[in-house]
Amino acid sequence: MAQEVKIAVVLSAYGAFVTYVPLKTEVPFLDYISLPKQAPTHTVTPRASLNPEEEAKAVRVAFKDTPVVVFVPGRAFDALGTRHGRGGGWYDRFLGYLPKNWLRVGFCYPSQFSEAPLLRQPWDQPVDYVCVSEGEQLFVYETHARDILKS
Predict the structure, then answer these.
(1) Distance of alpha carbon 72 from its chain centroid, rounded?
(2) For the chain, which residues make up each domain, given as ranges?
(3) Exposure on the CB side of residue 139, measured as CA atoms within 13 A
(4) For 2-142, which CATH class?
(5) Sign of the CA dihedral 109, 4, 78, 16?
(6) b vs e for 73-88, b when ≥16 Cβ sit within 10 Å of the residue's Cβ?
(7) What is the rounded distance in angstroms from the CA atom of residue 67 to the CA atom of residue 133?
(8) What's the pLDDT tens digit per position in 26-64?
(9) pTM flag (> 0.70)
């Protein structure tokens, strides 16, 4: 429970949220966190025709100067914030087009989390927090992967 409170406190400083529609192997993050009812959200819906640059542009225009949290799924995360996806690089490109000061929060299951470092390629976009869903509990790791205040 203490970890859930920690992530709730972190999220409370933000005014808008980019969410995702979880696939079968991805954490249904809204089972673990509550977003403010009046906070604007943009949901990334998986589809083959989705262009990461155009999606990022739409989100930047919609949220302008609002502090934003971007929730991201992944197949693997490590405690240092490295994220591996499905191999196509969609989220890496998407995150690369977003403002650097937007907070990135990844969600995974215990089998998808590694305390040991994963291979990080130059194009990989790390996350600031990794939330590991285990049953009804959420374990939160602050990664310090990026200094979001400098860029």
Answers:
(1) 3
(2) 2-142
(3) 14
(4) alpha beta
(5) positive
(6) bbebbbbbbbbbbeee
(7) 25
(8) 999 999 999 988 899 999 998 878 999 999 999 999 999
(9) yes
